[in-house]
Amino acid sequence: MELKNYTETVARQILKELVNKKQLDVCTCEQCLLDVLAMALNNLPPHYYVSNQGEVYSKLLATSNEFKIRVVTELTKAAIKVKNNPRH
Ligand SMILES: [Zn+2]
Asked: What is the pLDDT of residues 33-45, one digit of tens each?
């Protein structure tokens, strides 16, 4: 059993999708991507849950569009900040 932050799970997934589809104008080195993730997560409410393996995916599918859009918005804002001030 593991304590997980559902917001983080969703944000990591969406960040990966945005980068794969080249919809995020940011450097994709590990430092920059983690900075984007950290910045976005600081602006989003955490949702902690106790995880069993395999459970995460079905939760992801059930994520509301409204929440996804909020995550995308925060990731996009964070990407702009990191791009203008990269730490790598
Ligand atoms: Zn970088």
From this structure: 999 999 999 999 9
